[in-house]
Design goal:
- The protein is mainly alpha-helical and 501 residues long.
- Helices cover 64% and strands 1% of the residues.
- Among the domains are: 127 residues, no CATH class; 86 residues, no CATH class; 117 residues, no CATH class.
- Strands 1-2 form a two-stranded antiparallel ribbon.
- Strand 1 and strand 2 form a beta hairpin.
- Helix 14 packs parallel to helix 16 and helix 21 runs parallel beside helix 23.
- The protein is elongated, with a radius of gyration of 31 Å.
C-alpha cells in the first residue's frame, strides 16, 4: 500500500487512475471503522494528488464518512480548505454533495449533504455572490434551504443575485429572481438592497414574455413604499382577477393602510367570485388595524367607498337618513366613520374586522358589521375563519377595570354565539362547529374557561351548538387550568333570545 501511495504521488496526472483511487477511498472508509484512517493516506495525501477539482471534490465526498472513526475529523476540514482555496470553482462541486445522505460518524445528527450546507455557509465570506449563483444553478432542495437561510441572514447577497437573475436570458433564472426576491424582501433593511429588488421587479414586469412572473413582481413592488403608489392599482386588478398565485391576499394587504380603496375593491371581487378562498382575505383583514379603513376623514371615505362598482353599489339599500350630514363634532365624526366603514366593508364581506380589539364605540361598529355579514354569509369556511378570528383576537385587557373586562367578555360570548348559530345551520355545520370550538379550547389560553362558564349559565342554548365531544374537551382543558372563568365574565348576564332565533 505504501508503494501504491508513493507511485500515485509521483504521477503528473492521476486522472487515468481514478478507478484505483475510488477503490482506495472505499478501502480507507471500511478500514477506518475498526482501526482509523492510515496516516499514509490521510487528507494530506489526497490534497497532494494531481487531480482536477471535480475529481478531488468527489473523492473527498467519499472520504468524509471516515472522520470520527479514529483521530481527528480531518477530511471535512480538508474539504473546507479546498473550498477556501478556490471558492468559485469549489462551491458548485460542494453543491453536488446535496444528494448524499450518508451519516457522518463524527456528527451523528449530520449527513454528507448537511455537512456540505454547513461548509458552504461557513466559508461564504467574500464569496457570497458566487455562492447564491451556484445554489440557484444547482436547484436541489437543500440548495433551496440554504438560499432561504441566506435570504434572511445575508439578504444583500440574495438581492444582488435577484438583480442579476432578473436580466438573465435563461427563463429559470428569472423565475428564481421572483421566488427569492419575495423571500429576501422582508429582510432587506438597506435602501440599496430594496432598490435592487425594485429594479429587478420592474424589469420583469416590463417583459411581456414573463407574464407568468408579473404577479410576483407586483408583490415586490407593492411591498416597497417607494414603488407602492405606482403599482398598487395594477396589483389590485391582477389580484381581483385571480391571475397569479404569487400575488396573494397578504402580498396585496401590505398596501391596505396606505391605499385602502383599490385593495378593498380587489378583496371584494375575490370574495364575490365563485369558489373564492375567503379565508386568506379574512385572515389579512383580521390582522390589519382598522383606522385606515374606517378613518373619519372625508378623503379616506372617498378612497374606500368611492371605488365600488356601480353594479354592486346600486344593489345595496340606500343608507338611512341618520347617516347623512356628518358635522365637525366628535359624535358626527364617529357616525361618519361608521358610514364609511360599512360602505367599504359591506361589499368586501370583511367579517374579520369585527374581531379586532377596541373601545366601546368601535365595538358597536363591529357589532353592526357582524350583523351585516351574518345576514348574507353562509359559507362554512368563511364562518369558521371568522370564529377563529373572534376568539384569537379577543382582548381580555387584564389591566382594564373589572366592568370593562366584563364588557369584553360579554361581547365575545355574543359574537361566538351568533356566528356559531349561523354555522350550525349549514350542512355538517354542527360537526365543524363542535370540532372548531374544541380546537380553540385547546389552543387559545383562557377560552375553555370562558366557554364552560357560558355553558353552565345557559346549557339549553349552548347544548344545541356544542356536542358531547367538544364539551368533554372544553371541560378537560378548563379543569387543567381551573374551572373558574377569567375575571370579568358576568355571572348573571344572559344572551338575548333574538341572537339564537
Amino acid at each position: 500500500m505504501r508503494l501504491l501511495g508513493e507511485t500515485l504521488l509521483r504521477l503528473p496526472d492521476c486522472t487515468p487512475y481514478l478507478g484505483v483511487l475510488r477503490v482506495l477511498a472505499g478501502w480507507i472508509v471500511e478500514r477506518a471503522r475498526e482501526r482509523g484512517v492510515p496516516q499514509d493516506f490521510g487528507p494530506w495525501f489526497w490534497a497532494a494528488l494531481a487531480l482536477p477539482a471535480e475529481e478531488r471534490a468527489d473523492l473527498l465526498r467519499r472520504l468524509v464518512v471516515a472522520d470520527g472513526t479514529g483521530g481527528d475529523d480531518r477530511f471535512l476540514a480538508a474539504a473546507g480548505e479546498f473550498l477556501g482555496a478556490d471558492a468559485r470553482t469549489a462551491q458548485p462541486l460542494l453543491c453536488a454533495w446535496f444528494g448524499d445522505d450518508r451519516r457522518l460518524p463524527a456528527l451523528p445528527a449530520a449527513t454528507v449533504a448537511t455537512a456540505a450546507q454547513a461548509l458552504l455557509y461557513t466559508h461564504r465570506e467574500g464569496h457570497a455572490d458566487t455562492l447564491v449563483d451556484a445554489l440557484v444553478a444547482d436547484g436541489h432542495e437543500r440548495a433551496d434551504e440554504l438560499l432561504s437561510t441566506l435570504a434572511e441572514e445575508d439578504p444583500g447577497a440574495v438581492c444582488r443575485g435577484v438583480a442579476r437573475w432578473a436580466v438573465d436570458p435563461r427563463p429559470a433564472r428569472r423565475v428564481a429572481a421572483v421566488a427569492y426576491g419575495l423571500r429576501a424582501a422582508p429582510y432587506a433593511a438597506s435602501e440599496a438592497d430594496r432598490e435592487l429588488l425594485r429594479v429587478a421587479a420592474a424589469t420583469l414586469l416590463s417583459r411581456t414574455a414573463d407574464a407568468a412572473l408579473h404577479g410576483g413582481a407586483l408583490a415586490l413592488l407593492v411591498r416597497d413604499p417607494v414603488s407602492r403608489g405606482r403599482y398598487v392599482e395594477q396589483a389590485a386588478v391582477r389580484f381581483a382577477a385571480a391571475q397569479d398565485p404569487q400575488l396573494t391576499a397578504a402580498a396585496l394587504g401590505v398596501a391596505l393602510a396606505s391605499h385602502p380603496g383599490p385593495v378593498l375593491d380587489a378583496y371584494r371581487c375575490r370574495l364575490a367570485a365563485p369558489g373564492s378562498h375567503a379565508g386568506d382575505v379574512l385572515r389579512v383583514l383580521a390582522e390589519e388595524a382598522a383606522p385606515a379603513v374606517a378613518a373619519p376623514r372625508r378623503s379616506s371615505r372617498r378612497r374606500c367607498s368611492g371605488r365600488a362598482p356601480t353594479r354592486r353599489a346600486t344593489s345595496r339599500r340606500t343608507p338611512n337618513a341618520a347617516w347623512r350630514g356628518a358635522g365637525p363634532t366628535r359624535r358626527s365624526a364617529r357616525w361618519s366613520a361608521r358610514r364609511s366603514a360599512r360602505a367599504a366593508l359591506r361589499p368586501c364581506r370583511a367579517g374579520a374586522l369585527v374581531a379586532a380589539p377596541g373601545d366601546a364605540p368601535g365595538a358597536a361598529l363591529r357589532g353592526e358589521l357582524l350583523a351585516e355579514l351574518l345576514r348574507e354569509e353562509t359559507h362554512p369556511d368563511v364562518l369558521e375563519a371568522l370564529l377563529v378570528a373572534l376568539v384569537v383576537r379577543h382582548d381580555t385587557r387584564p389591566g382594564a377595570a373589572p366592568e370593562e373586562r366584563a364588557g369584553h367578555a360579554a361581547r365575545l360570548r355574543s359574537a361566538v354565539l351568533r356566528v356559531g348559530t349561523v354555522l350550525a345551520r349549514g350542512p355538517e355545520g354542527g360537526r365543524r362547529l363542535d370540532r372548531r370550538l374544541a380546537e380553540l379550547a385547546r389552543t387559545v389560553p383562557g377560552f375553555a374557561a370562558y366557554a364552560l362558564a357560558w355553558y353552565d349559565e345557559d346549557p339549553g342554548v349552548w347544548r344545541a351548538l356544542v356536542g358531547s365531544g367538544g364539551l368533554r374537551t372544553i371541560e378537560d382543558v378548563a379543569a387543567s387550568g381551573g374551572r373558574t372563568a377569567p375575571a370579568g365574565t358576568p355571572d348573571a348576564e344572559r344572551v338575548p333570545s333574538a341572537w339564537h332565533s
